Amino acid sequence: MGLLDVLLGRSKPVRPDLDQLFGLSSAAITLEAASELRPTGLGSVCFAAVEGGAFAEIQQDLRALVGAEASQDSYGYTWLLARREPTEIIDLVTDLHAVNSALEERGFGPQLLCSLLGFKDAAGHSLALVYLYKRGSFYPFAPLPGEKRDNALELQVKALVANDLRVENDLSRWFPVWGAPGL
Fold first, then answer.
1. One Pfam family from the UniProt entry (predicted)?
2. Dihedral of the CA atoms 102, 183, 16, 165 (nearest 10)?
3. 88: in domain
4. How many domains does the structure of the chain reveal?
5. Among 64, 103, 151, 162, which is most buried by a count of CB atoms within 10 Å?
6. Half-sphere exposure of residue 41, counting CA atoms within 13 Å on the CB side?
């Protein structure tokens, strides 16, 4: 990073650390102990698909590897949804890590957008812990009906998991993932 970058306020992008995903297991325990939020057994990885046989092949391999279901959202991004029993949180996190790692190892890291792990409370309210691949950080996303967010719950969860995960400090980077598989 040069002097001009410093003067203009530019910063080097954070290098993704996929091993951060394993922190989701301890964050899930923290949420269970300190709140009514419980893992749903659903997690997903979002990426921008590219044309070509190599990418189609790895997508098929990943679906077979973790038993994931593929879908596309309204923006054209591809989601792979992995399912496990809610008690198998470590296995689910391992599946999400495997999908991310396989895409990165085969040169498709720039296509990775985010991964999320779903939670629900007794009243049926949803929450996801979202990993931003390009920022190397997490944030909570709590959707409400009508494409609204439960900001109070998001901030509460941020405080609860701050010791387990590298939480994104810039709240403007807490992007909504409306209708994401796994929520």
1. PspAB
2. -130
3. yes
4. 1
5. 103
6. 6
